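Supplementary Methods. Inverse-folding protocol.

Structures were first reduced to a discrete structure-token string of length 103. This string, shown here, constituted the complete conditioning input.
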């Protein structure tokens, strides 16, 4: 399963530490279902934040669990970088499916 490490320009404060990178993995259907239980898909930012809590491998040295409440302090620039990486991982999964169906 693919992962991405995203550098954070401003970082995410968890406890006393400010972490400057986050590692995420490709989302599975179960991750999306769990995110929907936490936030409606009609509220896209909150849903994506809930999905992020499901697919985060680590934030710096913090290995979890990550909560939506912890993400509230995230700078919008860092959020955009994470969102882009989430989309890239989703696209990779689609590319893998397209390649598999070609055989």
């Amino acid at each position: 399963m693919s992962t991405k490490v995203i550098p954070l320009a401003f970082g995410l404060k968890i406890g006393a530490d400010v972490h400057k990178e986050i590692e995420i993995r490709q989302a599975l259907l179960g991750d999306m279902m769990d995110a929907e239980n936490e936030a409606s898909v009609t509220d896209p930012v909150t849903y994506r934040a809930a999905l992020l809590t499901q697919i985060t491998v680590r934030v710096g040295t913090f290995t979890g669990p990550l909560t939506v409440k912890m993400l509230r302090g995230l700078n919008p620039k860092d959020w955009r970088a994470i969102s882009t990486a989430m989309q890239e991982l989703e696209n990779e999964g689609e590319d893998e499916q397209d390649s598999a169906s070609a055989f």
